[in-house]
Design goal:
Helices cover 68% and strands 0% of the residues. It has 212 residues and is mainly α. Helix 5 runs antiparallel to helix 7, helix 7 crosses helix 8 and helix 8 runs antiparallel to helix 9.
Length: 212
């Protein structure tokens, strides 16, 4: 007899907790049906009622990780502009043990996403949502005069995500070189650079005419 809907939902929550524990301990490389079953103290056969394939398990793990990331405690958000963007990006960086563990799990998932078209498309969608989340802060910063009037909010959103995740990777691999204060200082330097007008490069040999 199949479990009642309420029992099944409770069991899925138990499975999700086990998946999370395996991810935190072993990363995506160690995420297997056998490992999750062992964490729960059940057989792999029972677990396959919920996840018939490893890919289904991985897809659930990624959704669970996104949910846990969204529900994590956040810094207080300033109203708008670059200060609000700073708070959002600080929440991404591995500045605390919990944030470091979460980022290690995310980075370990990239190899799987790159090898699977559907998982890769899901990951691309996550990045698109992240850019969409920070774009309004950049638009507000431009409206407030914190950025040049010509600033392209879409392009700057992509640049901000690229910078932040690049810093995440460096901090994970070399935490001694990138402690909390260095990460914060680098982020502040990056945000300050956005506020400076872009200087047009002058081709070598160009004769500049004086303005009259």
């Amino acid at each position: 007899m199949p479990p009642a809907p309420g029992d099944r939902e409770a069991r899925r929550e138990d499975v999700s907790q086990a998946v999370w524990h395996v991810l935190a301990d072993k990363g995506f490389g160690g995420l297997t049906l056998r490992a999750v079953a062992a964490e729960m103290g059940v057989s792999t056969g029972m677990l396959m009622h919920y996840f018939p394939t490893k890919r289904a398990l991985i897809a659930h793990a990624l959704d669970l990780l996104e949910k846990r990331t969204a529900e994590r405690p956040r810094r207080e958000r300033p109203t708008e502009g670059l200060a609000a963007l700073r708070a959002v990006l600080l929440d991404i960086l591995p500045l605390t043990p919990d944030d470091t563990a979460r980022n290690r799990i995310w980075v370990s998932s990239w190899d799987l996403a790159l090898a699977d078209d559907a998982l890769g498309a899901d990951q691309a969608d996550r990045y698109s949502r992240l850019r969409a989340t920070i774009r309004p802060h950049l638009e507000a910063a431009r409206d407030r005069g914190e950025l040049p009037e010509t600033a392209d909010a879409d392009q700057l959103a992509a640049t901000a995500v690229a910078f932040t995740h690049g810093l995440v990777v460096q901090a994970l691999f070399d935490p001694g070189r990138f402690p909390e204060d260095i990460q914060t200082a680098m982020l502040d330097g990056f945000l300050a650079s956005l506020a400076r007008p872009v200087q047009q490069a002058v081709p070598e040999g160009t004769v500049l005419r004086s303005m009259r």
